[in-house]
Design goal:
- By secondary structure, the chain is mainly α.
- It has one domain: Helix Hairpins.
- Helices cover 98% and strands 0% of the residues.
- The relative contact order is 0.09.
Length: 296
């Protein structure tokens, strides 16, 4: 019985130890799988971000090239407008000289040509202002796009630098998973075996305890039967003693009654008979003394 209990305790301790190792390995496996998923998700996220950033950077570069081309075109148009403005101003000066120093018949046509040149100069000034305003807007847009392109390039570099670390983390987690998974499966099998052995031992112990309780109940029943028999025997003896005492009491009472009757009868006898009896007794005593003295 004691050996079964000790074996059950040892099997229970072994099962608890294996269960503890199994839980610890499962926790490690879960943590490693979580790290692997995070690494894989991180790499996928990096790739998505890189693609998105590359598209954004390509779009920004395209817009930047377009705005730079527009700026260069506006700069060429400004130069051309300045050249035209100088020519128109030279023409304006020459017409003014003709008006000042020319013949009177030529002044009317000169005035007409001067009005037309002035209109041209005004248009060129307005055109140059528009070109300058457009160039200012383009400069601002180009500056913003250059900042955006710099930010996107920085993010691309950051994602590129983060990728090797995640790749290494993914490789190490995959290696750890390949080592931990068989260990967990082995510990699960060991725990099942230990549980089966423990259940078998507990069943044997339960059977032994049941037999022990049955034997104890049987022994208790026998002891109770012996006690009951002893009580019956003691009761019987007490009853017998009571009967004997009653009989003895009745016999003593009868004896006392007989003695009283004898005494009454003796009291009623004649005194002569009692005297004769005494004489016989006395004679008997004397003969007995004489016989004893002779023997001596």
């Amino acid at each position: 019985m004691a050996s079964l209990e000790s074996l059950t305790k040892s099997y229970r301790a072994k099962k608890a130890e294996v269960a503890k190792l199994r839980r610890k390995s499962q926790d490690n496996l879960k943590a490693t799988l979580s790290l692997k998923r995070r690494s894989s998700s991180g790499l996928a996220s990096i790739e998505r971000k890189k693609e998105s950033l590359s598209r954004q950077a390509s779009h920004v570069a395209q817009m930047l090239n377009q705005y730079r081309a527009q700026r260069e075109s506006i700069a060429r148009l400004k130069i051309a407008a300045e050249e035209r403005l100088r020519r128109e101003q030279d023409t304006q000066d020459s017409i003014k000289q003709q008006i000042d120093y020319g013949a009177p018949e030529e002044k009317a046509s000169a005035q007409e040509r001067l009005r037309f040149v002035n209109e041209k100069i005004t248009e060129l000034h307005a055109e140059m202002k528009e070109r300058e305003a457009a160039e200012g807007r383009l400069e601002k847009q180009i500056s913003d796009l250059e900042k955006e392109k710099s930010r996107l390039d920085s993010q691309l570099k950051k994602q590129t630098h983060a990728k090797p670390g995640l790749v290494e983390q993914l490789k190490s987690s995959e290696k750890a998973v390949s080592m931990l998974r068989p260990r967990v499966e082995s510990l699960i099998k060991r725990e099942a075996t230990a549980m089966k052995a423990l259940q078998s031992m507990e069943k044997k112990l339960a059977e032994a305890l049941a037999k022990r309780r049955a034997a104890m109940r049987k022994a208790a029943a026998k002891k109770a039967a012996r006690r009951k028999a002893a009580k019956r025997k003691a009761a019987k003896k007490a009853k017998t003693r009571t009967r004997k005492a009653a009989r003895k009491g009745r016999s003593r009472k009868k004896t006392r009654k007989m003695k009283k009757a004898k005494r009454r009868t003796a009291a009623k006898r004649p005194k002569a008979r009692r005297a004769a009896r005494k004489a016989r007794r006395k004679t008997t005593r004397k003969s007995a003394k004489s016989r004893r003295s002779r023997r001596r």
